[in-house]
Structures are given as C-alpha cells and as structure tokens.
Amino acid sequence: xxxxxxxxxxxxxxxxxxxxxxxxxxxxxxxxxxxxxxxxxxxxxxxxxxxxxxxxxxxxxxxxxxxxxxxxxxxxxxxxxxxxxxxxxxxxxxxxxxxxxxxxxxxxxxxxxxxxxxxxxxxxxxxxxxxxxxxxxxxxxxxxxxxxxxxxxxxxxxxxxxxxxxxxxxxxxxxxxxxxxxxxxxxxxxxxxxxxxxxxxxxxxxx
Length: 207
Description:
This protein is of the alpha/beta class. It has helices at 11-24, 48-59, 80-87, 99-103, 111-117, 135-144, 172-181, 191-200, and strands spanning 2-4, 29-33, 65-67, 94-98, 119-123, 161-162. Helix 2 (48-59) packs antiparallel against helix 8 (191-200). The protein is globular and about 50 Å long. The model has no long low-confidence stretch (mean pLDDT 92).
C-alpha cells in the first residue's frame, strides 16, 4: 500500500513504487489517495475526486499498479490505520513510507496497530541523511515494538525494511506552482495527468 495526498501524483511517486515492487518482489502496489489527509494543510489540496482520477491515469499502463478509493468512500480524516483494517485479510500487506514520514509515525492514529497490520517499508530520499541507528529512528522502533531495520523481505520477520530506492527531485509544491503559473509540467508527470490538470484548470489561481 502506497498512501498519500498525490496532489498531484508525479514520476517520483511512480519510480519509487516500481523500484520497491521489484526489489521486494511484491505482487502489486496499491495506491491509496487520501480524501482528507490529517497531517497536511488543506490550502492547495484539490478535491479528492480529482486526485483519485489523476492517480488512476498515472498508473493505468502498469500491470502491477492499482488504485483504491477506500479512503474516498468513508467520511472524516483519512487515517492509515482505518485503511489497513479495511484492507486486512486480503493479502500480506506492506506499507510504503518515506523516511521523514516514518520519523513522524508516533504522531499518527494508533501507530502500534499500523505497524502490526502491515510490514513497514521505509524509503529515504536520495541524498537524505536518514540514519536507522539514530536516536530518533530508534525511538520510533522502540515505541512501536519493532526490531531493527532489515534490508530483506523475509516473510518470517516483522522488522521494517529499509529500501534505498532511487528518487527524483520532484516536489508537489513545485508542480502546483508551475501549473498555477502556466509553466511546463513535461518530464515530471505522465502526459495523461498533465492533460487532466490543464483540462480541469487545477491549481490555477482564482480570478
């Protein structure tokens, strides 16, 4: 499971998801756009229906990518623990997280349950100095009752997996600014997503 606001989804998201899928031999990656992200300001957040449609367009050509509307179909904030409960029992679940998000996990709703419902897969950004032995990372592991990080996908372990997947220097805030200013979005997201943004006038400043 790869959750996020996807505001908008871009090639950085897709590259990380594909690398993790390949490295861990996952059957599929399920993208889950958040309806109401509880930890992000709503300022430039376009409606969830648009973010869902853009995500569907972005993954349409990948046979092992899929999109779920599970968070759009329930009211209130989109808490990951509720999503994992809804998805539980179907497959062996892995939860894909950036390293910054991992360090913030203790502020999530029911973080220990999150860690019990899905194997955590943590991906540092390229060039980011994430140290799994640092006190901040160790505190999260300790509070969640997890063993030390591993680099393998052994099914017998609950240890979070640290994956050094490649990432692209693309940010959602830069893409929103470019869209607002009418600048190029090429080579940063799939063409179908660019066309959708232009067609619906997303991220443009209000007149």
